[in-house]
Structures are given as structure tokens and as C-alpha cells.
Automatic annotation (TrEMBL):
Upper lineage: Bacteria, Bacillati, Bacillota, Bacilli, Lactobacillales
GO CC annotations, alphabetized: plasma membrane
One protein family per Pfam: AA_permease_2
Name of the protein: Amino acid permease
Bilayer disposition of the protein: Multi-pass membrane protein
Sample GO molecular function, one term: transmembrane transporter activity
Entry-linked InterPro entries: AA/rel_permease1, APC_superfamily
Subcellular location: Cell membrane
Species of provenance: Companilactobacillus halodurans
Length: 225
């Protein structure tokens, strides 16, 4: 309701996704006669929040990715840590992947298009990642004789598998539909450009997920021989 006071739904700013929150605080400052105070305060808070979030997500994500249970599927170089126990090579891998995605998205004509595409890309990659969770759930319930647990959320095996398939199908369908651009006019060069990025960038991440275990298996085979 508050945003509805500040924005005309029939004339929304073109960069609303990127700068909408800043516009809202700017208008709020003007409404209360405090100039740009709320805008600057929010910008500072947002900067600190994003830097903290980046540090936490980068560190936690990399540590989880390179955990002991994953070492079997990763090249040895990625699992090495420095004297502080930090997986420095994992950080470099994350930096490289992010840089590659940013460089590809930077081929779009302006910052607003880049921001929208990267924001929408998250709505593609995250659901596809969740599909692995549902597929794992289905496989575990199919072989529940091998995977014993003290707690079972859905007691009936076949109903649990049905729920897993339903969740997988909905999530996979939503992620696939997210590939089609919504911020560009269909049939234009910009629409085709964004569509190609929405296909290529997830495929790159999938390829990395396939290549790394293959390298790890090659290293193990070489050691045994």
C-alpha cells in the first residue's frame, strides 16, 4: 500500500527493479520534508548489508561446496586450504564463475538490462538447483531400505514419491518458463540476446558441475594406478 502511494502503477519507472527501493526512500524524504536523508541512509545501509551478505554467502557457500562429503567429487586443488583453514582455491573458482557470468551479461546494451537479466537468472538457477533436492528425495525414498532414518516426514513410501515428483515437476516447469525473457519485447534482438544468455549461463554452470567430478575421478584413477 505504501509503495502504491509513491508510484503510479500505469507509469512505472523503467528501472524499477534496480532502483525502485531507492525511489521509494527518496519520495519518502520529500514527503516528510527531509530531502534526500532517507535515500542516503538507505543507500549506506544497503551497501553495508550487501557487502556482509556477499562475504557470508561466498564463505558459507564455498565451505559447504568443498565440505568433506564433497571431496570425492572435486579435484584435489579445490579442496586445499591455506594456513587459516580457508579454501582459497574454492574462492577463486567462485570468483571465476561470477566473473564469467558478469562478462557474458555485460554484452547487454545498458546497466538496467544487465541488472534485470542477472536478477531473472537467479530465478532460473535457484529452482533448477532445488530440482536436485527433489530428485534426491525421490531416489532416497525409492531406496529407503538403504537409507535408514529415525524420522520420516511422509510415512507412506509411494505417497512420498508422488509428492516428490509433483514438487520436482512444478519447480522444473517454473524454472524452464523463467528462461523466456519478460523485460524485453518478444521477437526483438534484445529478447533473443537475453534468451541466449538465460540458456548459455545455466549450461555453463551445469558443465562445470559435470567436469569437476570427472577430473576428480581421473585423479583418483591415476593415483591407484
Amino acid at each position: 500500500f505504501a509503495l502504491g502511494v509513491f508510484f503510479n502503477a500505469h507509469h512505472l519507472p523503467n528501472d524499477l527493479k534496480m532502483n525502485g527501493s531507492y525511489y521509494a526512500f527518496q519520495y519518502m524524504g520529500q514527503e516528510f520534508g527531509m530531502g534526500q536523508f532517507f535515500l542516503y541512509l538507505f543507500a549506506l545501509t544497503q551497501a553495508l548489508y550487501m557487502m556482509a551478505q556477499l562475504a557470508v554467502l561466498l564463505d558459507a557457500g564455498t565451505r559447504m561446496f568443498l565440505s568433506d562429503t564433497a571431496k570425492e567429487y572435486l579435484p584435489k586443488g579445490l579442496t586445499k586450504t591455506d594456513k587459516r583453514g580457508l579454501p582459497i582455491n574454492g574462492y577463486w573458482l567462485t570468483t571465476g564463475i561470477c566473473t564469467l557470468i558478469m562478462v557474458l551479461s555485460a554484452t547487454l546494451p545498458n546497466m538496467n538490462s544487465i541488472f534485470n537479466q542477472l536478477l531473472n537468472l537467479n530465478g532460473i538457477v535457484s529452482p533448477y538447483t532445488t530440482c536436485f533436492l527433489f530428485s534426491s528425495f525421490i531416489l532416497v525414498r525409492l531406496h529407503d531400505d538403504k537409507f535408514k532414518s529415525d524420522f520420516t516426514y511422509i510415512k507412506n513410501k509411494y505417497f512420498a514419491i508422488l509428492v516428490g515428483i509433483w514438487c520436482f515437476a512444478i519447480t522444473f516447469g517454473a524454472a524452464t518458463l523463467g528462461i523466456f525473457p519478460t523485460d524485453e519485447k518478444p521477437g526483438t534482438a534484445a529478447w533473443t540476446h537475453v534468451l541466449s544468455l538465460n540458456i548459455i549461463e545455466p549450461l555453463i554452470m551445469i558443465a562445470i558441475g559435470i567436469i569437476l567430478p570427472l577430473i576428480a575421478r581421473y585423479q583418483r584413477t591415476k593415483e591407484t594406478n
